[in-house]
Structure prediction request, 305 residues.
Amino acid sequence: MKLDWDDFTIDISNYHNLNLYIKALNKVRELIADDYDFLQVIDGRIKTGVGKSTIAIFSAKYVDENFNVEKIAFADIRQILRLVKKASTGDAIVIDEGGVILFSRQWRSKEALLFNKVLMIARAKRLFLQVVLPSVFFLDKYVRLSLHALVSARKRGLADYYFGKDIIKAWAGHIITMNPRHQLNARTPEVGFTFEFPSLKGWKLFEEYYQRKLEFIDKQLDEWLIEIEEGEENGHANESVVPQGYMTYVDIIKRLKAHGIEISYDSLRRTIAKLGLETRKHGRRTLVKETDFPYILEAVMKKGI
Prediction:
């Protein structure tokens, strides 16, 4: 059996037990067609770079032939809510690296409640919802009790699949390897098996996803840099007052945003350096003259940074 997606072909027979995982995904198709939802978590046992996102995109594309990067939300509750709201009945959607927010203090309060509501909406819309994160334990207990299947990636190209009561065994650290001839016949089978999965490198959809992920990471880093600098402003009284006639990088980014321009921290640094503008240190912060802002604005608008 071969899968042909755009210009990308996968020969299922080249991967041990991948046919079993395909049967599991066929069951997902049937359940959604019969007015059921399906929640699947893909974790990496705390490890990174083990192919979690590869499995999620492979699974989503198999279940939903119209799956694309617009159906992926990264670790931002606003993205998640917008995506679920826009989703149509039966869509496959992916929440990638949810652990970034699922494990934060903020997520434990307001966002946790919102995510639980997302699950209820997913049920009503009969969505195939996949959450990708480092460990299933990063999820709220309610969410863990609501999931239908767990795919735990051991390393790139190798993962374990758990369904039903076997998920509990997976939480206990057991690895289940079933007979390759095991068939998925029941509507709610309780199975566990290890399977190999292919790399999607070079496939247009996967490359688009990877580019979006890098953009999201850069945006997160910029937000954290701003938070750190603002924290330093509040935490150092002798540095909190900016000398008259000067601006911090945070001030510049906020002013540009008021003009409808988004710019990263690094891009702003490069722009200021290229313009040859005078800067000065004020404690831990770098300051720029307020009179130089028009030059920065003009340069950014001209180059579309």
